[in-house]
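Narrative summary of target 7.
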Amino acid sequence: MTDVRYGDNSRVAIELDDGRVANEVGTLRAEPLDNARAATATAVREPLEFPPLAQCVTPADRVVLALDRGLPEAASIVLAVVEALVEAGVAADGITVLRSPGDQNAGANDPCQLLPSPLRERITVATHDPADRRQLAYLAANEAGEAILVNRAIHEADMILSIGCLRGDHSAGYFGIHDCVYPSFSDEKTLQRFRGLGSLQTSGKDSAKSSGGERSARGKTRPCRHDELVAEANNAAWLLGVNFTVQVVPAGGERVMHVLAGHPDAVQERGRELYHTAWDWPVSLRADLVVAALEGGAGQQTWENVGRALQVAGQFVEEGGAIAVCCGLSAQPGPGIQSLAHADSREAALRHISHHRPIDALAAAQLASALDRGKVYLLSQLDPSLVEDLEMIPVAGPDELARLARHHSSCVLLSNAPYVVAKE
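Modeled conformation, tokenized:
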């Protein structure tokens, strides 16, 4: 019998009918940090290939902390960074903590909740609204001649300090180390472009592309769509002068395994190595049931992570097999996923999603793909009738999921599914 953790503090015991143990994937390979605040303080004091943070700022600087959506231990990390800035002489009134609308919509905790009250009252905390033109400023024109717009606080900052959560290079909706600045804090038109379903076309069998890119009609290699978007994000960060970043290697749920700080190139190189050491898992076997778990609080229980979990689970499931996602999801689906329930067919829904590119476009496409492959079960906090409308099968609770597993001849338990990188 094996316990799988999901949601904020829930678990389900899985045992196959004949007493065999299910194959486990995504279990932690290293202990999470005991003190993310202390680790962050050390990282900014001893950054990679860059002077300490205290030497990079002046008392009059306006500093923006650009926070990634779903950042684990965000409050501890923000506290350590703000303390370092204040100790270096930066006035608290000159510090802005900028968060994404996705975190606010998901009900994620206040990233400044650990700051002492006098300090908290002086710092500006803002939530980006990509549809509010007053919040946006012109940076430059891209190669197509279109305006690159970014949040005005970022545009006017003397120092942009990005704080992100590393993921697999081709994780859906993740566009590299600068993703937490651009496109996250750009305008709605840009975000829609990055939500194009073509961004799901990465190297690998799902897109029939080699790791070197996509073959043109003349046999030459060109970057795949995802790589083009990563390059665009990198260019925007270069134009903004982003030269210091803090990045975490997640440990599942709301925990952190490593905190890195310094020059983005150095952090990316070291972070990629640490991430893939922790989260690369070989597809050594496939099963007719994959149980994919989402662990953590409200900031992790999102449709975005459900989509990522389904995509990873699809690489471990046999043809015609089933996927069961266990999570604490309570948020209503966005317009893209809703269209799967209301359109005449999945094909029609995907055409609509591809054209309009709603906020949940990628998750909707991932759900549609999973439903095309086989049955999808969902253990969540959603109304069962809503789950059925989306053509998934609602699971009432852990006991029902355990019974479901006993009716399958083989099972893979996929812990921390959104972070796993399946290696063929």
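The longest strand covers residues 317-326.
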